[in-house]
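EI: anyone free to look at a 170-residue chain?
SC: sure, send it
EI:
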Amino acid sequence: MATNKNIDQERVQQLRRVQREQGQEKAQSFAGDAHQAELQEAERQTQLERRRRAQDWQRENEAAVAQEQQEAADRQQQEVAEQEAEAQRQQEQERQRQVELEAQREEELQQEREAQEQNEVEDRQREAASQEKDADRSDDTELSSTEQMFRAAQEAEERDRQAEREGIGR
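SC: here you go
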């Protein structure tokens, strides 16, 4: 019986060995599965992190591009405003220049009018002086017969008018 007992024990040991080996295999298989799951989770987390970083980079890049575009638009708007201000300044300068030219023309015309008036006054003064000289000369010389007759006729006419007035007055 000892042999049967030994055989039974041997079988129990074999069975236990088999169970142990199968358990180790199962444990190893389970550990392998768990390790594989951990690796897959780690890979998934890595991919999620990469996606998140890519999205962050894209958002940052888009924000930078938008900021650059806004700055460019602001610069362009500033340049347009400066150009408009310069154009307005030039228009104001041109308007002021036109006003000054008009004032200068007006002054030149006024000076011409004054010079013309002065010339006319001088001409009249010369004419009057000439006539005065002529009158002085004619007083010094005898009047021509035509002038004497004309004056005599004027004086006679004046006497007739005077007589009429005195006649009406009486």
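EI: Residues 59-157 form one domain.
SC: 👍
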